[in-house]
Each structure stands twice: as structure tokens, then as C-alpha cells.
């Protein structure tokens, strides 16, 4: 087993899943779609968000690889910027108040509003594409874990893994949090979950910045 690649995978997998746990615009959209349209049509939203993430992941993997081949200084600058962005996400999470999570339970069932799987897919895709945090997060994450020694096959496998996790996470949100009782309980836990993920993402961001200066 290549322990270097294994450590890269574990780092990416943990940071990525922690980011998914933190409720954002995509999360709220998935919950609202599940409540208003039911699980079947809401799968379109999950598919759209996952597709947008897949596109950003591909662009970042290609972009980071190109920069690695051209300029070490650019990579160091990106590594510092990426680490600072993760620290920024951590600060936002740590400073958030309990009231900020009430929107999760504020969704109401829509009446007389027809939609289709395609419309929900497009809505999810645009939500994922227009959320700048998605691009910045993947870019900041890949600058620290990818090197010239990482093969194309590993990059593809990593991209498929992260896209699959996004889709499966949104599916679980649809089928679990579409229930009002469960959603209310989660909204209370979301505050504390965000605090924990904020601390860990902050530590990862600090480690990224530190590694950039140490080299």
C-alpha cells in the first residue's frame, strides 16, 4: 500500500465530508425540494448539485496539475490562499449564532406548484455552480494534497469518490430530513456540528498555510 497516497485520500475525504456537514445554500435547497416536491423529484436536485461539484472538481484537478508543472511560486501562493480560505470558513462557522440555523426548519410545503425532475436537476446544478465556495473549497483543498507524484488514475478516482459522496449525502438529506420531526432535531444539532467542523477545518487550513511557509 502506498501510504503517501492513502494519507492524501484520508485528508481529502475527511475535509470534504466535514464541509458537507456544514449546512449551506445547497443543503437548504435540498431540504426545501424534498418537502415541496417529494423524494422522487428531489433526486434531480441532488443530481444537479453533484454534477456541478463534479465539474468544479475536474477543473480544479486539471488546473492544480497545470500550475504544478509551471510555477512553484504560484502553487505556494495558492496554498496560502487556500489555507486562509479554510480558516475563513472555520471563523464563519465558529461565529455563527443559533438563530442562523432556524432557516432549516422554516421551509413550508408549497401548494399548486408543479415541477419536474429536469427542472429540479437544473435548479440544483445552478445552485452548485453559482456557489463560489464550492470552487474555492476544492481549489484550496487540492493545492495541499496534490503533487507531481500523484497519478492521473488517482486523481480520477478521487474525483469520482468526492462526486459520489456529494450525491449520496444529498440523497440521505432528502430521505431523512424531509420529515419535519427529524429536521427540527437536526436544526438544533447543526449549530454544534458546525462548531466542531469549524475547529477541524481551521486546523487543516492552519496546517496548509504553515506547510507553505515551511517550504
Describe this protein's structure:
With 215 residues, this protein is mostly helical. The protein has a domain at 61-106 and 113-215. Helices cover 82% and strands 0% of the residues. The protein has helices at 3-21, 25-37, 39-70, 72-95, 117-129, 132-145, 152-177, 180-214.
Secondary structure topology:
Blueprint: H1 3-21, H2 25-37, H3 39-70, H4 72-95, H5 117-129, H6 132-145, H7 152-177, H8 180-214
Helix pairs in contact: 1-7, 1-8, 2-3, 2-5, 2-7, 3-5, 3-6, 3-7, 4-6, 4-8
The biggest sheet amounts to:
none
Number of helices: 8
DSSP strand (E) fraction? Answer: under 5%
Cα Rg: 18 Å
Could you state the oligomeric state of the chains shown?
single chain
Overall pLDDT: 77
- What structural class is derived from the secondary structure elements? mainly alpha
DSSP helix fraction: over 70%
Task: Name its key features.
8 helices; 0% strand; 82% helix; 215 residues; globular
Amino acid at each position: 500500500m502506498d501510504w503517501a497516497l492513502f494519507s492524501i485520500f484520508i485528508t481529502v475525504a475527511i475535509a470534504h465530508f466535514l464541509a458537507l456537514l456544514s449546512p449551506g445554500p445547497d443543503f437548504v435547497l435540498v431540504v426545501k425540494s424534498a418537502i415541496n416536491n417529494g423524494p422522487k423529484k428531489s433526486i434531480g436536485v441532488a443530481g444537479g448539485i453533484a454534477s456541478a461539484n463534479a465539474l468544479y472538481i475536474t477543473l480544479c484537478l486539471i488546473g492544480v496539475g497545470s500550475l504544478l508543472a509551471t510555477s512553484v511560486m504560484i502553487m505556494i501562493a495558492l496554498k496560502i490562499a487556500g489555507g486562509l480560505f479554510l480558516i475563513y470558513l472555520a471563523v464563519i462557522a465558529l461565529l455563527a449564532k443559533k438563530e442562523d440555523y432556524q432557516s432549516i426548519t422554516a421551509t413550508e410545503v408549497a401548494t399548486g406548484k408543479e415541477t419536474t425532475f429536469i427542472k429540479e436537476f437544473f435548479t440544483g446544478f445552478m445552485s452548485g455552480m453559482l456557489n463560489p465556495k464550492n470552487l474555492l473549497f476544492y481549489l484550496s483543498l487540492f493545492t495541499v494534497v496534490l503533487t507531481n507524484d500523484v497519478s492521473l488514475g488517482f486523481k480520477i478516482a478521487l474525483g469520482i469518490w468526492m462526486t459520489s459522496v456529494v450525491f449520496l449525502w444529498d440523497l440521505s438529506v432528502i430521505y431523512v430530513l424531509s420529515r419535519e420531526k427529524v429536521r427540527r432535531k437536526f436544526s438544533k444539532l447543526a449549530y454544534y456540528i458546525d462548531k466542531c467542523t469549524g475547529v477541524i477545518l481551521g486546523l487543516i487550513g492552519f496546517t496548509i498555510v504553515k506547510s507553505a511557509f515551511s517550504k
